[in-house]
Amino acid sequence: MANHVVLGGGVAATQAAEAIRSLRADDDITLVAEEERPFYMRPLLADFVAGRLEEQRLWRDFETKAASIGMKLVTGRKATGIDRGARALLLDDVTRLGYDKLLVATGVKPRLPDIRNVNLEGVTAFSTLADARRLVEWTKDSRSAVVVGRGLQGVELTRALHLRGLQVTLVVPDESPWFPHLFQIRGELIERVLEERGVTVIALDRPAELVGRDGRVTAVMTHEGRELPADIVGFALDQRVVFDFLVGSGISLADGVIVNSRLQTTDPDVYAAGDCAQLEEDGTRHPIGYGWLRAMEQGEAAGRNMAGGDAQVQSGDESEAQALYGTSLLARWQ
Known about the structure:
By secondary structure, this protein is an alpha/beta fold. The protein has helices at residues 11-23, 45-50, 62-68, 129-139, 151-163, 187-196, 292-306, 318-326, and strands at residues 3-7, 28-33, 72-75, 79-83, 88-91, 96-98, 101-104, 108-110, 123-125, 144-149, 167-172, 200-203, 207-213, 216-222, 227-229, 232-236, 239-241, 257-259, 270-272, 277-281, 284-286. It folds into two domains: 3-109 and 240-325, FAD/NAD(P)-binding domain, CATH 3.50.50.60; 112-237, FAD/NAD(P)-binding domain.
């Protein structure tokens, strides 16, 4: 009987844990999640912020599922290290969880920029349910918002705040502000749709500092000299892979946790899946692709392999992960 530890609360982690149980009825499985409740529908957070979805519809009752299949849940805990010699995962409450196989599915977290007054109330990244709850509360007494971001996440946050009735300005700091060239909808078409709906789009500029009053943000000052009124500032920019606890462990790290096509790291007893993983084949590193659907597929594959299977994954990119979603992107503004 083997002992499996799955680190993460998203779809890659939960899918892996269920895949292990489907193949290994008697093995021990422990899932460790940083948030207090594991598994909610992150792709629907923008609809929750927009007021189109009640919070309870975000949830899948994973706790009941875990109990029904004999899986132990440890919630509200972060990994702080790994003892590969003893095969133990170290948590922030000094707990040591022994494992035979370990899956790292910690995903990515957005970073707030290093600018003045970024810690004012009304300023947030947009990644978790906690972020979404804050945004919903702030919209109750807000009239204007600035979203700083690119790609799908920036457009979705802009849409959500616009549908809440706010006047929204989208600031995109890149020369290529929208989506990869393979994406199904051209960036310039998205920009036109946003502007037709009253969103102001500013490209090739970025915040220099935030301005506040009584601890609450009131405006964004940009490098090009613009002053943009803002009761809310949402950042949908850089994402960092969550793997700090693996630094110094000897497991190979780059832009993500390096894995082979079976999602094994350079330690064959440790696997990685989802947004935190990066595929290396024949000495060349490739994007493994990210997004909800790819994380689900990778979680399933990792779980099967931890249980003794031989599932393989291939490299991918953002456009693949978002293709189905992209076809309805513009319709979601109606």
